[in-house]
């Protein structure tokens, strides 16, 4: 089992797919990493040698912000917006949609489960 950036990668998946289990690495970055290291895209994690896994790990550490650092950076950006008191920060504070979506109906993901209002039935 290969462990990269604190994540156990599934051994029976292709390298490009398995790298996407790391927070902050999507299809494009996974393909870029495999290209830089020089591994064929059809190979599986279980077929990689320790040296190849080490090369992948070093490439990710040197080039990309992933996992805990990325989560921390995102949280700090949101906190900065909330401290500024700008519109986006206020929407984050209130738990409402940030990017202009309607809230009259929908927006249940951000607002949570609908609360019944007494006396509304007619």
TrEMBL record:
Keywords: Ribonucleoprotein, Ribosomal protein, RNA-binding, rRNA-binding, tRNA-binding. It comes from Sphingomonas lacunae. Part of the 30S ribosomal subunit. Forms a loose heterodimer with protein S19. Forms two bridges to the 50S subunit in the 70S ribosome. SUPFAM superfamilies: S13-like H2TH domain. The lineage of its organism: Bacteria, Pseudomonadati, Pseudomonadota, Alphaproteobacteria, Sphingomonadales. Belongs to the universal ribosomal protein uS13 family. One of its GO terms (cellular component) is small ribosomal subunit. It comes from the Bacteria. Pfam families: Ribosomal_S13 (PF00416). GO terms for biological process: translation. Located at the top of the head of the 30S subunit, it contacts several helices of the 16S rRNA. In the 70S ribosome it contacts the 23S rRNA (bridge B1a) and protein L5 of the 50S subunit (bridge B1b), connecting the 2 subunits; these bridges are implicated in subunit movement. Contacts the tRNAs in the A and P-sites. GO terms for molecular function: rRNA binding; structural constituent of ribosome; tRNA binding. Residues 95-122 are annotated as: Disordered. This is Small ribosomal subunit protein uS13.
């Amino acid at each position: 089992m290969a462990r990269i950036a604190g994540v156990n990668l599934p051994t029976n998946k292709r390298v490009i797919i398995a790298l996407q289990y790391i927070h902050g690495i999507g299809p494009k970055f996974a393909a870029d990493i495999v290209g830089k290291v020089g591994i064929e895209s059809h190979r599986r994690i279980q077929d990689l040698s320790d040296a190849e896994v080490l090369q992948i790990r070093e490439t990710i550490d040197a080039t990309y912000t992933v996992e805990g650092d990325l989560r921390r950076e995102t949280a700090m950006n949101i906190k900065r917006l909330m401290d500024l008191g700008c519109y986006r920060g206020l929407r984050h504070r209130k738990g409402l949609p940030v990017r202009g979506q309607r809230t009259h109906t929908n927006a249940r993901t951000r607002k949570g489960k609908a609360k019944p209002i007494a006396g509304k039935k007619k």
